[in-house]
């Protein structure tokens, strides 16, 4: 029978967990989508370039004012906005637009649109979601310049004076940083992803957010009542009374559990039968160390180092890298800081590197392959890491290792870096632990040989699942097949952990699988030593570990290994641990 309900359910991407219920406030931005192209006489080119430069200057001044007003709770992310300031004058955007005006004799608006399109395309084939989403930063900077060229008014989130839920086509990090927590309950957008800088900032604010809804701004009217379920990535428009009552109860339950768990975040992650685990945080920028500490993290399990390399014509020098690494090492001391070496493919992320176009960059010249092919660039980073290791417990992590040869080659370059540091008389620490990312099936198979060459394994489940199942997790047509509970993935992880124990080296997990509570009974049963995740996930994971017995998990694992599908494994988990998961969860709560 057809339903007579008028409520609309929209499904998007979880940007930040939690539930809020309130009135929609549509962020009205004057459109800059329709750009006309027209010719500029040669004698007017200089004037047109000056018009463009004036728009850039005005956009930079606007952003500088926003940075000055960033609230204290977001100070750790000011670096994101400062990166946007740099992008305003970057050759990839600023210089390219000026070149187009000069060479093609066209108006500044069209030149900016063309330069933006070219810059964004540089990131389009990157498989890593975090790096791929950096194209959004270029777009946000471009839009601010464009609004000044056309004369559109900029949206000012800080001026909103009522308690509402923001509904927007997209929100830039600058706009998100203007959110006043006493006014804005949450937000939803048509565009955006979990790895975007906007998503990173909103998780720090800890307000519910759902991104990537496609057409929310077309379906939702101002002052409509909406429910935002940030944990499940769901938005309900004009909800029925029974839906409102249900979500009101869930919201209160969520907030109560969240408060209870946060109060215990500094307690150790000791299982019900006394096994102690190290829970660390994943970060992209030094400013995020604060969030790791505030959420009870016991170190940095994955420090992604790509942010200093993105959107620029040249590579950062050793001192710039050293300053960043040293800051993190000192802030986290004596806890470990595991620094992953550069994991980009140069032709896409560094616009100054003339590398041939690749048909499949995720399987091409990236990560350790790129570094070994460019030893000078690699050695610069290694020198900076070795120097920072003199100021804290720094460890080195090599990404996308597929064979022993890459490890041998890396050791040679490290030796060269040490020799050069000795000659330069700089302080450094050679006694640094070296680990490898296990994210390629060949690394799983060769784990026994690789264990003799390194000090620890770190399982990157995001890529391991993708490569094992031949699934592009950012391809919406096949992403539903991406599942870390696939029996093949679980068996691969078991093989790596068992190999590590046999060879007497530790095995960590730093992929998203580690941050999902539903996976913990299996992961503890597998025998992993430590986990690293987004800072906001740390309290709930530590809380859940305290409720699970490792000895029982090991018995449970025997049943898991008998399953032949991810669905069967999921059903087994919920049947066995359902009550414990419901009582221990707050970021993936259930309405049961």
What's the layout of helices and strands?
Layout (H helix, E strand, L loop, with lengths): L7 E4 L1 E4 L2 E8 L18 H24 L9 H10 L3 H14 L3 H14 L7 H4 L2 H16 L13 E5 L4 H4 L7 E6 L7 H9 L3 E3 L4 H4 L5 E5 L4 E4 L3 H23 L5 E2 L5 E8 L5 H6 L5 E4 L14 H15 L3 E5 L5 H4 L17 H7 L1 H14 L4 E6 L5 H21 L9 E5 L2 H5 L1 H4 L5 E4 L1 H9 L17 H16 L3 E4 L10 H7 L3 E4 L4 H8 L4 H11 L5 H19 L8
Parallel strand pairs: 3-4, 4-5, 5-6, 10-11, 10-17, 11-12, 12-13, 13-14, 14-15, 15-16, 16-17
Antiparallel strand pairs: 1-8, 2-6, 3-7, 7-8, 9-10
Written account of the structure:
The chain is α/β, with parallel strands linked by helices and 592 residues long. It folds into three domains: 10-27 and 161-240, 3-Layer(bba) Sandwich (Glucose Oxidase, domain 1), CATH 3.50.30.10; 42-150, PtsI, HPr-binding domain (Enzyme I, Chain A, domain 2, Orthogonal Bundle); 273-584, Phosphoenolpyruvate-binding domains (TIM Barrel), CATH 3.20.20. It contains 24 helices and 17 strands. Strands 1-8-7-3-4-5-6-2 form an eight-stranded mixed β-sheet. It has an eight-stranded parallel beta barrel with strand order 10-11-12-13-14-15-16-17, surrounded by four helices. A hairpin with a 5-residue loop joins strand 9 and strand 10. Helix 1 crosses helix 6, helix 3 (91-104) crosses helix 4 (108-121) and helix 15 packs across helix 16. The longest helix has 24 residues, at 45-68. The protein is globular, with a radius of gyration of 25 Å. It starts with 7 loop residues before the first strand and ends in an 8-residue tail after the last helix. The relative contact order is 0.10. The model is unreliable at 585-592 (pLDDT under 50).
């Amino acid at each position: 029978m057809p339903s007579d309900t008028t409520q609309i359910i929209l499904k998007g991407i979880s940007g930040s967990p939690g539930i809020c219920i309130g009135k929609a406030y549509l962020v009205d931005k004057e459109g800059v989508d329709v750009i006309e192209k027209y010719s500029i006489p040669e004698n007017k080119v200089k004037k047109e370039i000056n018009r463009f430069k004036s728009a850039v200057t005005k956009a930079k001044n606007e952003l500088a004012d926003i940075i000055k007003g960033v609230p204290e709770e977001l100070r750790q992310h000011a670096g994101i906005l400062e990166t946007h300031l740099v992008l305003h004058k970057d050759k990839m955007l600023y210089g390219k637009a000026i070149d187009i005006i000069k060479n093609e004799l066209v108006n500044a608006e069209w030149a900016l649109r063309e330069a933006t399109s070219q810059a964004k395309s540089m990131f389009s084939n990157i498989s890593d979601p975090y790096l791929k989403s950096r194209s959004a930063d270029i777009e946000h900077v471009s839009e601010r310049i464009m609004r000044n060229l056309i004369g559109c008014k900029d949206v000012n989130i800080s001026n909103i004076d009522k308690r509402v839920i923001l509904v927007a086509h997209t929100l830039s990090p600058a706009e998100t940083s203007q959110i006043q927590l006493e006014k804005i309950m949450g937000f939803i957008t048509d565009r955006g992803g979990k790895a975007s800088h906007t998503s990173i900032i909103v998780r720090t604010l800890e307000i519910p957010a759902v991104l990537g809804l496609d057409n929310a701004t077309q379906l939702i009217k101002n002052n409509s009542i909406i429910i935002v379920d940030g944990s499940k990535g769901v938005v309900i428009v004009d909800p029925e009374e029974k839906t409102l009552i249900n979500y009101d109860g869930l919201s209160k339950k969520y907030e109560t559990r969240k408060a209870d768990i946060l109060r215990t975040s500094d307690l150790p992650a000791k299982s019900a039968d006394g096994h102690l685990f190290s829970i660390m945080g994943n970060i992209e920028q030094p400013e995020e160390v604060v969030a790791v500490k505030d959420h009870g993290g016991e170190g940095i399990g994955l420090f992604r180092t790509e942010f200093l390399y993105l959107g620029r014509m040249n590579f950062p020098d050793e001192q710039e890298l050293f300053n960043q690494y040293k800051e993190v090492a000192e802030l986290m001391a004596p806890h470990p800081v595991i620094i992953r070496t550069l994991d980009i493919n140069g032709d896409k992320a560094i616009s100054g590197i003339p590398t041939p176009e690749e048909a499949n960059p995720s399987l091409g010249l990236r990560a350790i392959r790129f570094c070994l092919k460019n030893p000078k660039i690699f050695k610069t980073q290694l020198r900076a890491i070795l120097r920072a290791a003199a100021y804290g417990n720094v460890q080195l992590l090599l990404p996308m290792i597929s064979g022993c040869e890459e490890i041998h080659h890396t050791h040679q370059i490290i030796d060269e870096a040490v020799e050069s540091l000795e000659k330069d008389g700089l302080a450094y620490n050679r006694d640094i632990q070296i680990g490898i990312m296990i994210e390629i099936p060949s690394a799983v198979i060769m784990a026994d040989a690789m264990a003799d060459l390194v000090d620890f394994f770190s399982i990157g489940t995001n890529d391991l699942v993708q490569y094992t199942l031949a699934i592009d997790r950012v391809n919406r047509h096949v992403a539903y097949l991406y599942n870390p509970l696939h029996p093949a993935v679980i068996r691969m992880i078991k093989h790596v952990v068992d190999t590590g124990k046999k060879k007497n080296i530790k095995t960590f997990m730093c992929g998203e699988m580690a941050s999902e509570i539903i996976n913990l009974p299996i992961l503890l049963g597998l025998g992993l030593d430590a986990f690293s995740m987004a800072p906001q996930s740390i309290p709930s994971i530590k809380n859940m570990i305290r409720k699970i017995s490792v000895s029982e998990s090991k018995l449970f694992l025997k049943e898991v290994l008998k399953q032949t599908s991810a669905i069967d494994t999921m059903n087994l988990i919920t049947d066995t641990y359902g009550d414990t998961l419901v009582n221990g969860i707050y970021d993936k709560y259930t309405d049961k």
